[in-house]
Amino acid sequence: MTDNRYRVPEDAFLAGVRVPVEEQVEVQAEPVPPPADWRADPVPWADGGSGDVDGD
Predict the structure, then answer these.
(1) pLDDT value at 4 more than 60
(2) Chain centroid to CA 56
(3) How far is Cα 52 from Cα 47, in angstroms, rounded to an integer?
(4) What is the reported pTM?
(5) Burial class of residue 30, CB neighbours in 10 A (0-12, 13-18, 19+)
(6) Do 32 and 38 contact (CB within 8 A), yes or no?
(7) More confident position, 9 or 26
């Protein structure tokens, strides 16, 4: 059987995708509190999207 001319050595293949651990972690700033007029509506875009007792 002949050698595969398209074969890429594993080290050469993975060298471009390996990312050091230090670069994998994203440092984020402290969370920003929500604005004073913020509502805690669980479904703000439903506009009465769920049905009532009789399924309307």
Answers:
(1) yes
(2) 36
(3) 13
(4) 0.28
(5) exposed
(6) no
(7) 9
Using only C-alpha atoms, the chain has a radius of gyration, in whole angstroms, of 27
In the numeric block, which tokens belong to residue 27? 């440092």
40: amino acid identity, one letter: A
Amino acid at 39: R
Q: Encode pLDDT of 13-41 as tens digits.
A: 888 788 888 888 877 778 877 777 776 66
Between CA 55 and CA 27 the distance in angstroms is 47
CA distance 41 to 49: 13
Per the structure block, which two tokens stand in for 9?
């050595």
The answer for residues whose C-beta is within 8 angstroms of residue 50's C-beta and 6 or more apart is: 43
